[in-house]
Design brief:
CATH architecture: Up-down Bundle
Radius of gyration: 20 Å
Oligomer: single chain
CATH superfamily: MFS general substrate transporter like domains
Number of domains: 1
Shape: globular
Helix content: over 70%
Distance between the termini: 42 Å
């Protein structure tokens, strides 16, 4: 089957994943605030879900990397089923805070945990001879997020936050179809089995993994800092917008702008990587995360929101594919799902600290002190990422 066929099929998985990411993550605060949660409690719930995600991502990846029945594709299908069930239960069960807390935390966690599995699925299928244009497929995923956001913001403002649950069910149904029909030539045969026959070794212990890939682990620390700021903006964007006189409709437009701008960069990332190494691009993206956050610190009008969101083209849009290619290029075959999972875990840990700290700052001090905190943490991440880049360059020479 030709490149376009596999890219199209893999793109559908990305589009439905990130459409769901929009309704479940970008609008998490909107849904929870509508059900009586304070900013601090929203932060605690999202922090708990992120902690669980950070723990489960490498654990699940280690199982998928090993020979056995659990494959990337099968895990995606399991995750989709759990998310659909949680959404349905939130719709039909009494809307008490403990019920909402437990089900939304589970839904949020599961959706985050299978993110690196979607990325790893691409590299698994490429090794099986399925030529997939990863950058384009991932960029179309961002477009799916953008289009969903453009429509869902107005729908929530008009019909209420529970419309998000209906959207989740529809998206999960489409996601299940896309994943179920995405069958690798030869079926779900583990590449890990072949790799073990070649004598390759998996570094499943985190200390062993860190000794094998020290520059990568330092990059992860920088990643935590970048995504502290990134998640702060994403999770509390509605409060930032409201402080400048906007509402849910502006939230929809702002998230649409950031997501749609990711497509062109991700689509050409393969060309860019031929001229600039993935590790250098990761540092560049960190600087863009910092600029994006600093713009909001000095914002006095709603227009600043859209200027800040425009820097997504240099920040998230560069970091995500660059980190995926960095893992694929530098890690042994049996470590690559774990490598993708560790990137996701670092992103998630950044979210944990952001949720715990920023929700409380927002409730007690307000929007601007929260944004200043995010900027300071992100600046520290840029310094750490530069140190990792120097280490990586040194290791290449040794």
């Amino acid at each position: 089957m030709n490149n376009r066929f596999w890219t199209f099929r893999y793109s559908l998985i990305n589009i439905t994943y990130y459409a769901g990411f929009c309704t479940m993550h970008a609008y998490a605060a909107v849904y929870l605030l509508a059900h009586g949660f304070s900013n601090t409690k929203v932060g605690l719930l999202l922090a708990l879900a992120n902690i669980l995600s950070a723990i489960l991502q490498p654990f699940i990846a280690g199982i998928i990397d090993k020979p056995g029945p659990l494959t990337n594709r099968r895990y995606i299908l399991i995750s989709v089923a759990i998310i659909a069930l949680c959404s349905l239960l939130l719709m039909i069960l009494p809307s008490s805070k403990p019920v909402v807390f437990a089900l939304y935390a589970l839904l949020y966690t599961v959706q985050f945990v299978y993110q690196p599995v979607v990325t790893a699925l691409n590299f698994e299928y490429e090794k099986a001879g399925c030529n997939i244009y990863f950058g384009l497929a991932r960029g179309l995923g961002s477009a799916g997020f953008a289009v969903t956001s453009a429509f869902i913001g107005g729908m929530v403002e008009r019909d209420g936050a529970d419309v998000l649950l209906i959207a989740n069910l529809v998206i999960m149904a489409l996601s299940a179809i896309a994943a179920f029909t995405f069958i690798k030539p030869g079926g779900d045969i583990k590449d890990a089995v072949v790799s073990e026959e070649k004598g390759l070794v998996a570094h499943n212990n985190i200390m062993d993994f860190a000794r094998t890939y020290p520059a990568f682990m330092l990059f992860l620390v920088g990643t935590v800092c970048f995504f502290f700021a990134h998640n702060m903006i994403n999770d509390f964007l509605i409060q930032i917008i409201r402080s400048l006189g906007g509402a849910e409709t502006e939230l929809g437009y702002a998230t649409f702008l950031a997501a749609i701008l990711e497509l062109p960069v991700m689509a050409v990332i393969g060309v860019i990587l031929k001229k600039i190494s993935a590790d250098r691009l990761m540092v560049f993206s960190g600087v863009a995360f910092l600029v994006k956050t600093m713009i909001l610190v000095f914002a006095t009008q709603l227009a600043a929101i859209f200027v800040s969101q425009s820097f997504q083209i240099f920040a998230y849009a560069v970091f995500v594919p660059a980190s995926a290619y960095y893992v694929s290029a530098t890690m042994e075959e049996l470590d690559q799902v774990k490598g993708q999972a560790y990137v996701s875990s670092a992103i998630t840990v950044g979210g944990v600290f952001s949720n715990l700290i920023c929700g409380s700052i927002l409730d007690n001090l307000g929007v601007r002190p929260m944004l200043v905190t995010g900027s300071a943490v992100c600046a520290a991440g840029v310094v750490i990422a530069l140190a990792a880049l120097v280490m990586q360059s040194h290791l290449k020479r040794v």
